[in-house]
Write a structure and sequence with these properties.
113 residues; alpha+beta; Nuclear Transport Factor 2, Chain: A; six-stranded mixed sheet; 30% helix
Amino acid sequence: MIKKISKNYLEFFANKNIEGLSTLLHEDCILIDWDVVIQGRNLILENNKKFFNEIESLSVDIKTISELSDKVLCEIVINIENISLEVVDVLSFDEDLFIKKIHAYKSRELSED
């Protein structure tokens, strides 16, 4: 079940779907990535909305998704404009199946060969 929710999360993110993301995040969700630490669903959504408004093209290629107890590890490539980033998202869930933590690790920026 949390694997499917994780796929939905990535699809909503790739489609810049703030309303969809809102339905998946716990109100006290925390986002940690290589640039920011943000706590609270509303603040995370505001940050995403700002990011989405700053870019034209966005896609997410899912390489693997692995479920581990209350966590899902997602190996993905995020394509933003003409930049591709290898990222690992670790999504943690609460007992009600809301995402309570998103920890994103940037592996590397891929070149356009």
